[in-house]
């Protein structure tokens, strides 16, 4: 069974991303694609929901099944096909847009990116929404489809992982849980050792992996959580700057002001006057 949707160019040409076509294939053992380098000028993204299929990369054949997927960048050579006995159930989209390479962090640019999307729990729901859109209306439909695709890509980039990194998914979840724990307890005098314990990591490994995943150190993340809480108190209460500093977890008002200025390029009092 093959479901295909093809879209014309959007009226607004500056969407960050926009699908050219998308669809859903299942129970089709004949599904096979073989595209030479440079033949397809758009991104080509598939997720596997069931069954089995294969990619050919050079002399290597990679098997994929439920919970995995692949993405080719524009112009990349493509060879993939369904298993003849247990054909895959796949959802796919071809898309273009401005800034896609940066959003995808270069994934798929030079060779196929294979990934697991088991941690991206919302992804399949978003795919279902895209398929239900069909051909978008000219009155707001194009913006909706573009925004939906953007959310899908963001969900993929944030939560999917390389096929070769499957054992890392549990560790990634631990780090996310640790970050949430830090956010919830940010008003307490947390140490780096306590934050690492929340993820059951050594301090050095926790610091390195946390930075790789969240793009900042655990201490910077803790400070950011405190600053965000402080902003709310500065705007919604009449607490003094010293009281706000104590309430959000800073040891002194002087240090609070120093860190606030670094994050916001203004003092807490200036922020209160600006946003009050």
Automatic annotation (TrEMBL):
The keyword Nucleus is annotated on this UniProt entry: no
Stored InterPro entries: AraC-bd (IPR003313), Homeodomain-like_sf (IPR009057), HTH-like (IPR037923), HTH_AraC (IPR018060), HTH_AraC-typ_CS (IPR018062), Tscrpt_reg_AraC-type_HTH (IPR020449)
SMART domains registered for this protein in UniProt: HTH_ARAC
Gene3D superfamilies, per the entry: Homeodomain-like, Regulatory protein AraC
Domain HTH araC/xylS-type: 176-274
Classification via Pfam families: AraC_binding, HTH_18
Swiss-Prot/TrEMBL keywords: DNA-binding, Transcription, Transcription regulation
PANTHER family in the record: ARAC-FAMILY TRANSCRIPTIONAL REGULATOR, HTH-TYPE TRANSCRIPTIONAL ACTIVATOR RHAS
Name of the featured protein: AraC family transcriptional regulator
Organism field: Paenibacillus solisilvae
